[in-house]
Structure prediction request, 697 residues.
Amino acid sequence: GRHLKGEPSGCGLLFILNFVSFSSGFCWANSVERKIYIPLNKTAPCVRLLNATHQIGCQSSMSGDTGVIHVVEKEQDLKWVLTDGPHPPYMVLLEGELFTRELMLQLKGSSRISGLAVAISKPSPAQGFSPGLKCPNDGFGVYSNNYGPQYAHCNWTVWNPLGNGLAYEDFNFPIFLLEDANETQVIKQCYQDHNLPQNGSVPEYPLCAMQLFAHMHAVTNTVTCMRRSSLQTAFSLNPEEVCDALSDYNVWSTLKPINTSSKIDPMDEVIIVATRIDSHSFFWNVAPGAESAVASFVTHLAAAEALHKVPDVQKLPRNIMFTFFQGETFDYIGSSRMVYDMQMDKFPIRLDNIHSFLELSQVALRNSSVLWVHTDPVSRRNESIQPQVMKLSLLHRGQSESLCLQSQPLPPSSFQRFLRAKQIPGVVLADHRTSFQNRYYQSMYDTAENILMKYPEGLSPEETLDYVTDTAKSLAEVATVVARALYQLAGGTGNTSAIQADPRMVSRMLYGFLIKTNNSWFQSIIKQDLKGLLGDELPQHYIAVTTLVNTTQLVQYVLANLTGTVVNFTKEECLNPEKTPNPEKEMYVYTWVQGSRDPNSTSRVPFCVQSTVHLTKAASPAFELKQWGSTEYSTWTESRWKDIRARIFLVASKELEIITLVVGIAILILSLLATYFINAKAHVLFSSPGDGGAVAY
Prediction:
């Protein structure tokens, strides 16, 4: 038969119908998904980390793990998910105060658990919570079988007695932190409406379920994952690496400028002041680190500012280097790299140039304003070291109520990595005599509240930024002590009473690093193209992989603002100082910052800052040397992943799912048969009445 011109054939019509059906299905897919699933947007996953020997953390299956939700508010509720419940596997919604090692090991050993969602506890658990180790960075400090064996492995002092090691366990199911109380309530309401057993009876379908996606690509240990990544890079046009080394940058500056393109004179002496700027917790990128890191590096910044204000500091016999180490939580990544660079002549300062070392450890929770001065009892046996260590200790005792500890070892500290390379006089200042005062070390609860930061109600953001808390006053006192001691140690002979840290500036830094980075002061001191790193959420201080983390950049710009000077450069001159005739351009770093808002307009007044602030790699030497199984250097890596998300939905019974599947298959078969029949009889079904004979023209 023949068809009239312009009319589709039977096959063509079917193609159009199928195309329209597919297109409409594609367009409505998102709409249908939104009606089925409720996404959980404010969550933080537990991810997989690896070192030379182990893998730790959590992961889901490739397609995500699903389970019926059961809320566990007390330990007795566990019986339902572990033995009694008729609908395994279960997704447990766990109250924060029950998130303990003992309970987690129970869940880990059960095949009836498909995942876990932890509701953050407010207020923080009164008994304390630390998922870190009792002996942090064990094996990578100075104490070993060859150096102070009686102090190795925390045999003398257990620094973190509350550490339960939970963050160093390996879980084969996903674990997410619920950061938003509203989302937690939505899950609980769904549970109460559909899953809560009534009068002892088993809940009926449909049931509220949760699905967690957190599949990790790396397995076994760093040696395995780095070998796989290197093979991919060598033989694949589109390599898919499975893990990345934890790395970032250290921030450092000097009191007196030095030429970083060459080495300083071997006779020049430098005093190193150090703190760490990173923290960690059980969950990825949840690392507030108020006591473990922030209070210390804020105190360090305040001391640097106070010293730079002293009129005669440029004439001091010794230079002072302010150093902020990144990645110290993971077996001293930053400090071990700086020591390595000094040994390899890749740093302008050599180990032999170091006169002494002063480190600020945890200092925010002092009892009765006492500051403890920790020293190394092994190196003090050296007759040349002992007098200098005593001088360091006495300088602090002369400035405040400080007590020197001579018989016990150093707490976990960057100084230990320098001592591994060379015996250097040094002290570590801390708020604890023996074990940590911090009950939330390496925890999501190490927040501003942990260091007792309190603000009056009703303050505007600007008023809160400048409000001087008692915590800020206390840390300013420590910064003043440190600055005065450093001045005398560097050879200063003037009156130290004028050296004073600014409590208001300490308040600003605490607010910015612990509560809200997106504040007017931080906005004014950074480059315009970096304003995206400021946010309204709580700042986190976890070391990243390959890219500069926010903390590092903010510390860099705050240090430049506090210790640098404003110079009368145009934007072009500031961005390209090598084109200016300034003979000291190689001694300084120039930064064009966006400045404060002009009171008479909405625009900002940018300016150029001249400082001695530099960045240097904080990447473990193990990866540069390709010694992935090293016991000398940190080997921590982070697994890569493709998709991390969480959602809840209603799930039908298995019987209904099977019936739906069978009916769907039956309809599919009938549709195929109908399509075949229509296609076979198309010449009959779609022929026109005029097709019976030939048409004459």
